[in-house]
Amino acid sequence: MRVTASAPGKITLFGEHAVVYGYPALVVAINKRIYAMAESRSDDVVKISAKDLRVPGIVVSYVGNEVVLETDYGAVLPAIAYINKAIEITSEYLGVKRGVNIEIKSEMPVGAGLGTSAAVAVSTIAAYAAVNGYELKPEEIADLGWKVEKAVQGIASPMDTSITSLGGFLKVRYKDNAVERTPISIGKNLPLIIGYVEREAKTRDMVALVRDRLNRYPDIYGRILEMIGIIVEKANQALTSNDFKQLGELMNLNHALLEALGVSTRKLNELVYIAREAGAYGAKLTGAGGGGCVIALVPEKQDLVELAMRIHGSMVMKTELGDEGVRIDKVEIS
Ligand code: MEV
Q1: CB distance 109 to 103 below 8 Å
Q2: Catalytic site residue 160?
């Protein structure tokens, strides 16, 4: 039996990093997906193939605790860790342990801040559960996915795994030992342009950097995170009332605070300024930072802003927002 499941990437509109410390974040699914194909095996070998992760391919077999690499290009190894943990945690949850071939395909650049790790984990969980005869609810998959992220990264919020599991637009918050996942209504299509510059640091390192600074200066960094939380609440109101001017201002403020946290880079800052000067109402980095993506709110002069961002050397992506969460795309019985 072969099952293909998929899960979308995401853009964090407001609140990244602060969400790790119990503040809310606003996040949206995009129409670029990760596909996980799971094929049942008669033995207990788990074979993972991630040839299409926009980095050179790798095929890894795990036999018991032994790892067998068929080709080795180190860049994919982090993605493999998410797949391997997803199978381990789902096996424990379901009480099944069967061999499987997993193949991953991606429609977006991996590690760019678009939530690919969460989408890899969540699509793998859904496909592996389904090939073993279990249909899990999106919330269950989100909780398992969060466990995977925490196991691989050390620290993670439930934001990325929630949005890739449930899809749409969400306000996510971890409060009083429970994950709140509230759908948010967005009146008009948000006119966003996404720019991508090379990633210099991993999510895990950027999250650790913020934790370290917070430990050293809790009264300063604690207040920055708290202010981001306030921005998120105001942005939620501006989003529902389609107030693009205010939304732009709040994006600029959120970016300034991310810069104060230390997660922006010179290239990201330049891209933010270029987008604003060319006509964006607001622009900010999105995701963990250390390179990666910038979002610009551009209700008018879109061609000009896009051109300015391209001239700066960034890759520009267009995507529809609010895509469906995790889903089973295909079941084939041989
Ligand atoms: C990464 O996409 C977002 C961060 O807030 C980390 C997390 O929420 O786990 C930086």
Answers
A1: no
A2: yes
Residues 29 and 146 in one domain: yes
Out of 44, 160, 176, 243, pick the active-site residue.
160
Is residue 96 in a domain? Answer: yes
Q: Hey, is 22 helix, strand or coil?
A: coil
Which two three-digit tokens encode residue 278?
């060319």
Domain check: are 29 and 157 in the same one?
yes
35, 120: one domain: yes
Residue 204 Cα to ligand 1 midpoint, Å, equals: 9
What's 216's domain CATH number?
3.30.70.890
Q: Are residues 263 and 212 in the same domain?
A: yes
Phi-psi group of 292: left, alpha or beta (phi > 0 → left; psi -120 to 50 → alpha; rest → beta): left
In the reported structure, the alpha carbon of residue 155 is separated from the centroid of ligand 1 by a whole-number distance in angstroms of 9
pTM for this prediction: 0.91
Instruction: Give the residue, out of 11, 13, 148, 159, with the most ligand 1 atoms within 8 A of its beta carbon, to mutate for a pocket test.
Output: 159
Q: Domain of 160: which CATH number?
A: 3.30.230.10
Please report, in tens digits, the pLDDT of each residue of the chain (334 residues total): 999 999 999 999 999 999 999 999 999 999 999 999 999 998 888 888 876 664 434 444 444 544 444 433 444 556 788 999 999 999 999 999 889 999 998 888 777 788 989 999 999 999 999 999 999 999 999 999 999 999 988 889 999 999 999 999 999 999 999 999 999 987 667 999 999 988 878 888 999 999 999 999 999 999 999 999 999 999 999 998 899 999 999 999 999 999 999 999 999 999 999 999 999 999 999 999 999 999 999 999 999 999 999 998 888 987 889 999 999 999 999 7
Can you tell me the distance from the alpha carbon of 191 to that of 173, in angstroms, rounded to the nearest whole number?
A: 25
